[in-house]
């Protein structure tokens, strides 16, 4: 189809190109440039070479934040690869009422992270439901400080992330399960393979690409965690800022009164590179495992 | 579904009973997961309906309010302007739906159906921007809004997500999947690109347009980090940052916070009940491309 003015396609593309270049690519290039300057919100901005990156290597706040974000990936991503798969296997069959359960399990996905964060900070409060039930059952005498202890807080945030992701990845797995060839199952059954055996030798190998996809998606989004920790632990990131994540640190350094644009841009560049590295590493899981 | 032939295999009495037991176990598990996923919402709903005279911290906790009262929904509006926050969220979400549907289908059509020099490059620009995480550019994005003198406005909340690259690529794939014969016939009849787009292609791809609309609404209504950065004046707050602000100021009244969260979640539950299949479809398509 070519009988058109040369300008026509560009008119179709104009709004979205303006949006993508103006609000994604240009800010990205600007972030990279600012990372090599000492710019602040109130002005300034001289080229300072690698100073920001040197400062970052000696900044304990950076290492705390990077460590927390990495820990988040290590715990959340495997949980989100395995648990939604189990859930998908549970709701796969067409039992009476199964559509209701599938729909209900998806509900946490549609709720805002803020709603979810507030619900869980009430549930996990020292006077909240979880402690109340445990105390009523006689399991506990003093409430568990889920939201004020450094380690319990980040674990609680992870729990919230996993809880909210369950339904989303369950739907991805369900779609993949639907496309596992039926003949494979039937052949295995003829060969005398039991249900568990078929799960291991037929279903899981067929799902491997989907599991890698879920690993990539959940790892990358876990590394960028912000809201869960912010809402459960407060803007400072838990007791003494011990639970600050990398994105929280960028927000604290780059916005508001501190407005240290140069340094926050250097942190952003590091975030970008680490995310990209994580993306490449997790997408290679498939290849390495297949090779070994 | 592939796992359900066991029931078709004729079995002995013992096997039948075994199958029954497995099914009961399955339903028990389903109910347990139901309690874990939906229970927290119900507990929040219950808290929001408890009156001031009821102890919300009682041990053991009481799940059903002794006396149902909608009073907290009125009181939360007195504590913070929750209804004007909700209106701000609604304006932002509706704007996002319109800009994404219009912008993404225009661009998706050009990338899928029009031949021109630079098409590969344009597609690469959209694909490349998917690799840039929002969190890595949010500070620079704030500077863009400041230089446009838009910071602390709802327009600034809308702009970064106004036309997402993912939606452009979703629409492109939807148009690519349509059979081209009708459009070629229209071309021979002298229809121009705009006519082919509006009269033939767009009506056929409306399923994907609905997916784009539903997800644009959800992401915009639920967004937290960007409005938190770009809005500073409480009168401009959207519902999500308004609620986190409410938590900061009235930590002691969980009934009010609970009422606020219910107000925030209600529209999406409504949208979800009406447009369920589009949510599930969107997860599938978004996952493959994202």
UniProtKB/TrEMBL annotation, chain A:
Keywords: Cell membrane, Membrane, Transmembrane, Transmembrane helix, Transport. The chain crosses the membrane at residues 12-36, 70-91, 103-123, 151-176, 206-226, 261-281. It is found in: Cell membrane. One of its GO terms (biological process) is transmembrane transport. The keyword Transmembrane helix applies. SUPFAM superfamilies: MalF N-terminal region-like (SSF160964), MetI-like (SSF161098). Residues 66-282 form the ABC transmembrane type-1 domain. It comes from the Bacteria. One of its GO terms (cellular component) is plasma membrane. CDD domains: TM_PBP2 (cd06261). Gene3D superfamilies: MetI-like. It is a multi-pass membrane protein. InterPro entries: ABC_transporter_permease, MetI-like, MetI-like_sf. Belongs to the binding-protein-dependent transport system permease family. This is ABC transmembrane type-1 domain-containing protein. It comes from Kutzneria albida DSM 43870.
């Amino acid at each position: 189809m070519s009988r058109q003015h040369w300008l026509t396609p560009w008119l179709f593309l104009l709004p979205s190109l303006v949006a993508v270049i103006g609000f994604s690519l240009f800010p990205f290039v600007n972030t990279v440039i600012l990372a090599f300057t000492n710019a602040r919100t109130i002005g300034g901005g001289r080229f300072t070479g690698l100073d920001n990156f040197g400062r970052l290597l000696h900044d304990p706040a950076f290492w705390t934040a990077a460590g927390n974000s990495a820990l988040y990936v290590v715990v959340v991503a495997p949980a989100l690869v395995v648990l939604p798969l189990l859930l998908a296997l549970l709701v796969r069959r067409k039992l009476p009422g199964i559509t209701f359960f599938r729909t209900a399990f998806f509900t946490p996905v549609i709720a805002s992270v803020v709603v979810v964060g507030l619900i869980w900070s009430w549930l996990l409060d020292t006077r909240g439901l979880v402690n109340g039930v445990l105390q009523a059952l006689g399991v506990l005498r003093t409430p568990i400080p889920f939201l004020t202890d450094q380690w319990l807080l980040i674990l609680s945030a992870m729990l919230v992330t996993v809880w909210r992701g369950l339904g989303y990845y369950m739907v991805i797995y369900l779609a993949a399960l639907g496309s596992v060839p039926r003949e494979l199952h039937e052949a295995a059954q003829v060969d005398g393979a039991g249900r568990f055996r078929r799960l291991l030798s037929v279903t899981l190998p067929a799902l491997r690409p989907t599991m890698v996809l879920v690993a990539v998606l959940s790892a990358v989004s876990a590394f960028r965690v912000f809201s869960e920790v912010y809402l459960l632990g407060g803007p400072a990131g838990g007791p003494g800022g011990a639970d600050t994540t990398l994105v929280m640190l960028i927000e604290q350094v780059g916005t508001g009164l501190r407005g240290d644009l140069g340094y926050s841009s250097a942190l952003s560049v590091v975030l970008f590179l680490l995310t990209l590295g994580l993306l490449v590493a997790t997408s290679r899981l498939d290849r390495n495992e297949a090779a070994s | 579904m592939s796992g359900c032939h066991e029931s078709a295999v004729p079995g002995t009495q013992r096997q039948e009973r075994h199958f029954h037991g497995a099914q009961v176990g399955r339903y028990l598990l389903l109910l347990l997961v139901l309690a874990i996923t939906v229970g927290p919402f119900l507990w929040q709903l219950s808290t929001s309906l408890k009156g001031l005279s009821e102890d919300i911290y009682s041990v053991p906790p009481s799940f059903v309010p002794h006396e149902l009262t909608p009073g907290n929904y009125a009181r939360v509006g007195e504590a913070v302007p929750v209804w004007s926050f909700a209106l701000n969220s609604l304006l932002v979400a509706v704007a996002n739906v319109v800009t994404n549907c219009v912008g993404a289908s225009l661009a998706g059509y050009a990338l899928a159906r029009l031949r021109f020099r630079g098409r590969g490059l344009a597609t690469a620009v959209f694909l490349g921007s998917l690799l840039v995480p929002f969190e890595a550019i949010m500070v620079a994005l704030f500077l863009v809004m400041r230089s446009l003198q838009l910071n602390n406005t709802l327009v600034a909340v809308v702009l970064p997500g106004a036309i997402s690259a993912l939606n452009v690529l979703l629409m492109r794939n939807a148009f690519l999947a349509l059979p081209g014969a009708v459009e070629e016939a229209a071309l021979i009849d002298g229809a121009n690109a705009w006519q082919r787009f509006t009269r033939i292609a767009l009506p056929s791809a409306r399923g994907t347009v609905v997916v784009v609309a539903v997800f644009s609404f959800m992401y915009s209504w639920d967004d937290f980090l960007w409005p938190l950065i770009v809005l500073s004046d409480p009168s401009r707050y959207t519902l999500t940052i308004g609620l986190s602000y409410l938590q900061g100021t009235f930590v002691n009244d969980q009934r009010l916070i609970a009422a606020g969260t219910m107000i925030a979640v209600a529209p999406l539950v409504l949208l979800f009940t009406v447009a369920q299949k589009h949510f599930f479809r969107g997860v599938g398509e978004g996952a493959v491309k994202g």
